Amino acid sequence: MSLNERISKVIEYSNFTPSEFADEIDVQRSSISHITSGRNKPSLEFIIKIKSRFPEILWDWLINGDGEMLKSDEPAVEEEEIVEEKAKPTSLPDLFTLIDDDNFGVTESEDRVLKQSPREFDIPNQGTVDEKINDSQRLEKTNEEIISQVIGNQDHKIKRIVLFFENGKFESYEP
C-alpha cells in the first residue's frame, strides 16, 4: 500500500470528507486531492499534521505501511506510564509547585503588610483650594495694559486691509 493510499485510509477512518479533513489538519483543500490522486507526495509537515491530529495512528504504519494502523490499548497504557515516570522531577521542584493555591505565594506576614499599607486612592486630597484653571482662559489684563497697547498701536499706520469672503474671493483696500 502506497503512502497516498494510507492517507486515503486515514481520511476514511476520520469520517470526514476530504475538504473537512483538510480543514481539520489545517492544510489547503487542493493538497488533499493532489495527494489522494497520486499527483503529489505528502510532505513531512503534512504527515506531522495528520499525526498530531490523530495521535492514535502509528508512525510506522503511516510512513512505511508496517504493522497496524491504530495503536492497541495495552501498549498505549504502558507508554503513558513511561511518559509519566519521565515527567516526574528528580531534582528541585519547578516554580509552579512552590505556589500555594490559596494565597498565590504570599505569606501571612506579607499579606498583613499589603493590607495595612495605604493605596493611592486612600490618600486624602492635599490641596484645599478648589480653584479650577482652564487652559483656554485668557490671562486677564489690567485696564492700564490695555490702554498702553491701544496707544502704542496708534503710532503705526495702516498699510492695507484685506477682506476674505466665504466663496473664496477677497478684496484688498489700501488707504
Explain briefly what this protein structure is.
Keywords: DNA-binding. The protein is mainly alpha-helical and 175 residues long.
How is this structure best described in words?
The protein is built from 8 helices and 2 strands. The protein has 175 residues and is mostly helical. It has a domain at 3-86: lambda repressor-like DNA-binding domains (434 Repressor (Amino-terminal Domain)). The termini are far apart. Residues 75-79 have low confidence and may be disordered. One of its GO terms (molecular function) is DNA binding. Keywords: DNA-binding.
Main CATH class of the domain at 3-86:
Mainly Alpha
For the biggest β-sheet, the strand order reads: 1-2
The major sheet is characterized as: 2 strands, antiparallel
DSSP strand count: 2
Quaternary state of the chains? single chain
String of helices and strands? HHHHHHHHEE
Please give the CATH architecture of the domain at 3-86.
Answer: Orthogonal Bundle
Principal-axes shape call: elongated
Strand content: under 5%
Rounded to an integer in angstroms, the radius of gyration calculated over CA atoms is 41 Å
On the 0-100 scale, what is the average pLDDT?
A: 75
Separation of the first and last Cα atoms = 104 Å
Residue runs with pLDDT of under 50 for 5 or more positions: 75-79
CATH homology superfamily name of the domain at 3-86? lambda repressor-like DNA-binding domains
Helices and strands: which structural class?
Answer: mainly alpha
As for the CATH topology of the domain at 3-86, it is: 434 Repressor (Amino-terminal Domain)
Q: How many helical stretches?
A: 8
DSSP helix fraction: 40-55%
GO molecular function: DNA binding
InterPro entries: Cro/C1-type_HTH (IPR001387), Lambda_DNA-bd_dom_sf (IPR010982)
Domain HTH cro/C1-type: 15-62
Protein name: XRE family transcriptional regulator
